[in-house]
UniProtKB/TrEMBL annotation:
SMART domains for this protein: HTH_ARSR
Top-level taxon of the source organism: Bacteria
Domain HTH arsR-type: 1-90
Record InterPro entries: ArsR-like_HTH (IPR011991), HTH_ArsR_DNA-bd_dom (IPR001845), WH-like_DNA-bd_sf (IPR036388), WH_DNA-bd_sf (IPR036390)
Name listed for the protein in its UniProt record: Metalloregulator ArsR/SmtB family transcription factor
Sample GO molecular function, one term: DNA-binding transcription factor activity
Record-linked Gene3D superfamilies: Winged helix-like DNA-binding domain superfamily/Winged helix DNA-binding domain
A Pfam family reported for this protein in Swiss-Prot or TrEMBL: HTH_5
PROSITE patterns xrefs: HTH_ARSR_2 (PS50987)
Length: 113
């Protein structure tokens, strides 16, 4: 599976997106990440493994702790992919805005005559 597909697949799960949001604030241990969730630590570890395999997070080693941190470069790849479609939609909205302005101008002309 390519990197972008792995990233989107990992982010398809709302728990994993919440973990990413948590790690965007700062590094955290598995226990800290698990606190707000009503699921087991092994389940959190499985989510972390998916995120790690997708390159979205990494785990360090600090004594007995393995803090997790966000890998922003992986998110940059997603943003780059989305940027193309953001530009696509901006162009479409600009064309629709121009069309609506033209229609309003035509209505005003008809109203005056």
């Amino acid at each position: 599976m390519d990197h972008l597909s792995a990233a989107f697949s990992a982010l398809a799960d709302p728990t994993r997106r919440a973990i990413i949001a948590r790690l965007a604030e700062n590094e955290a241990t598995v226990n800290e990440i698990a606190e707000p969730f009503d699921i087991s630590l092994p389940a959190i570890s499985r989510h972390l493994k998916v995120l790690e395999n997708a390159g979205l997070i990494s785990r360090g080693r600090d004594a007995q702790w393995r803090p997790c941190k966000l890998e922003p470069q992986a998110l940059k790849g997603i943003d780059d992919w989305l940027e193309f479609y953001r530009h696509f939609w901006d162009q479409r909205f600009d064309k629709m805005g121009a069309y609506l302005a033209r229609i309003q101008k035509q209505k005003k002309k008809k109203g005056k005559s």
